[in-house]
Each structure stands twice: as structure tokens, then as C-alpha cells.
Design goal:
117 residues; mainly alpha; 4 helices; globular
Length: 117
């Protein structure tokens, strides 16, 4: 379970950092992204193996990866800059909203469990 939590945290935090404030004209951002990109793939596969049974908690990770993949395709077709400010801002806000909703749901579950205790 700890491997799963680390994997999810690593992916979501890295995604939010690189989607919101990375400047890929600077070499350390490029190097950091390259390392994160390779590590997240290994951790993603590990988290699938260690995911809690009957859990939908992998969905944020899959949705964010899917959104990024679709954005890569759209930017390649339209020749927009991959770091288009409006698109990256939208993806960031969608990510933040999704994480907020998931956290709210988990807090409500936790509160119900504690109120019956």
C-alpha cells in the first residue's frame, strides 16, 4: 500500500509542477522532466500491481495521463506550443478540481466512519 501511495503522490505532484510552472527552455527543467517521465512509468506499473482491491483510486492517474496524451496529439496537429498558457492553465485547473473533488469525497467517507464510531 505504501508503494501505491508513493506512486500516486509522485505522479500527481510531478504532473502539477511540470504542467504549471516548468520552463522547458532551461536545461534543469528538461532534465527533471526526463527523469520524472521515466520514473513515473515504472511507478505507474508498480502502483497497478499494488493498488487496493476494488479501488477506483487509479482513475485520477489514468485521466491525467490521458489528458496529457490527448494534448500532445492536439498540439502536434494544430502546431500549438505544447506549453500554451491557456491550455496548460485549463489542464491545471481541471487537475486541481479533480483532486479537490476526490479529497472531498474521501473526507466525507472518513467523517461518516468516525461519526459512527
Amino acid at each position: 500500500m505504501i508503494v501505491y501511495a508513493i506512486s500516486m503522490s509522485f505522479y500527481l505532484i510531478g504532473y502539477l509542477i511540470f504542467a504549471s510552472c516548468a520552463t522547458f527552455g532551461i536545461q534543469y527543467w528538461v532534465t527533471g522532466y526526463f527523469l520524472w517521465d521515466k520514473a513515473k512509468d515504472v511507478l505507474f506499473l508498480t502502483s497497478i500491481y499494488h493498488a487496493p482491491k476494488n479501488s477506483t483510486s487509479l482513475m485520477p492517474m489514468i485521466l491525467f495521463a490521458g489528458a496529457r496524451f490527448v494534448w500532445e496529439i492536439i498540439s502536434a496537429i494544430t502546431e500549438w506550443n505544447i506549453n500554451n498558457t491557456k491550455a496548460v492553465g485549463f489542464l491545471f485547473m481541471a487537475s486541481a478540481l479533480t483532486i479537490g473533488i476526490i479529497l472531498w469525497q474521501e473526507l466525507m467517507k472518513w467523517q461518516r466512519l468516525n461519526s459512527h464510531g
